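Chapter summary example.
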Amino acid sequence: MVSLTAKEIAERIGGTVEGDPQVRVSAPARIEYGRPGTVCFYANPKYESYLDSCKADIIIVGRDFEPKQPLTATLIRVDDPYKGVTLLLEFFDSLKKNKLRGNRFSARWLDYRNHIAVSARIGRGTHIFPQVHIGRKVRIGSNCIIYPGVRIYHDCEIGDNCIIHANAVIGADGFGFTKMEDGTYRKIPQTGNVVIGNNVEIGAGTTVDRAMMGSTVIRDGVKIDNLCQIAHNVEIGENTVISAQCGIAGSTRIGRNCIIAGQSGVADHVTVADNTTIAARTGVAGNVKKEGGTLLGFPAIDYWDYMRAYAVFKQSGKKKQ
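The structure predicted for these 321 residues follows.
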């Protein structure tokens, strides 16, 4: 087990030590469950009550933090506790990843019941866990992690340093049907693929459908949470974040650096401008042209317009009572 001193942690995250620089910790912990031998962080005032009961040996805090009661833990002061703990967690995570053992790749059924097609190509340092299917002509870059039960259909492309969590499906057919004169539906062939950039993370149970023609595109740095649906021919711009249970309908373009909060949906053939924030349970039915806005409600409107309207709704309800 690797342990780090407060001094070593401070050097890694750009902090300064207040207390014992030689105290050692071997794992990170949430502040609610801090115990001897762990390092926690404090940034949100909602968790202030846990400071008194926290038994962690080290707590990462902001430079302007002033405790209301004396603390026994060694403090590491940083400019931004969230960034500081992110750097620390990346280090602990790298220690775990160094222990991973993936399968070296051949075109056959493997011992762990993986199936990797003859024509698939997988980069150096990529780890494939059991029960994964990788279809023909799939391309996966270097240093990726493909967790158990992932299905990657034929012709899809995945960049470097990607993480795809358990039971995600990449490249299933898009939902395309033509209604016939007799009322039945005829399937439209989905002839395209999915192209995923570098440094993308896709959550457990999420589905990314292949394009009808061309590609469904997830660009560099995108982070998609669990149980999301990305439909055919969607394009998601760089560094956009999508929370759990969101759905993006077909042929929609999401800009760069957007935030789409949980259980939100975006209609088909819609364009969403860069740096847009879509609040939880919001439904976007039309184009979003203005960059940097925040939307709420269904159909989605400007956040503050919605809050003013909501105040009227509340007053109307009180009058009826």
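To summarize the output: Residues 218 and 229 are 13 Å apart (CA to CA).
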